[in-house]
Design brief:
A hairpin with a 2-residue loop joins β2 and β3. The strands form two sheets. The chain has a five-stranded mixed β-sheet with strand order 1-8-5-2-3, with no helix packed on it. A five-stranded mixed β-sheet has the order 4-10-9-6-7, covered by helices on one side. It has two helices and ten strands, in the order αββββββαββββ. By secondary structure, the chain is α+β, with helices and mostly antiparallel strands. The chain is globular, with a radius of gyration of 18 Å.
Length: 160
């Protein structure tokens, strides 16, 4: 009897781990299908540096700047500086992708990201993302920590 309970518990645990492997930030999460806006850049190649400041105040959460224009094929080195008192994220994707991901974040607000198009930045710290924009279109960067997007923490990127 004890063995069957242990075996059933093990099978349930493995099923749970398998289900989590598809979740962003979980072990096994991958972007084999590719990224909507391009691809991770090569840090050894030249890139235009774009400073994006994250902050909160007056009931709002902001990215500065909140709009960028980029040429297709251009490589950008985003320097992400959190001047706020709270942790913030920078997740580069389409609006639809970020909205879907934001719903997952509501269920798991401590989700860790290990994606080349996303960084979580601690207060008074900086991070970098090097990104090559290979596709034309309108994309966004958003903070998907629950409540932050709703407080205005969204930026737009237009790739021409």
């Amino acid at each position: 009897m004890k063995r069957s309970i242990i075996a059933a518990t093990f099978v349930a645990l493995m099923a749970g781990i398998s289900a989590l492997q598809g979740a962003p930030g979980a072990a096994g999460h991958s972007h084999e299908e590719g990224f909507s806006s391009g691809e991770p850049g090569n840090p050894k190649r030249p890139a235009r540096v774009v400073l994006v400041v994250m902050r909160e105040g007056d009931g709002k959460m902001l990215f500065i700047p909140d709009r960028l224009e980029i040429k297709r094929g251009e490589q950008i080195r985003f320097t992400l500086r959190n001047n706020g008192e709270l942790e913030h994220e920078f997740v580069l994707a389409t609006t639809a992708e970020n909205l879907k991901h934001a719903e997952q974040m509501k269920k798991n607000p401590d989700m860790e990201h290990d994606d080349p198009n996303a960084r979580r930045v601690a207060p008074k710290k900086s991070q970098e993302i090097v990104w090559r924009f290979t596709k034309r279109g309108t994309f966004e960067y958003g903070c998907l920590i629950p409540g932050h997007r709703e407080a205005g923490m969204i930026g737009t990127i237009v790739v021409k």
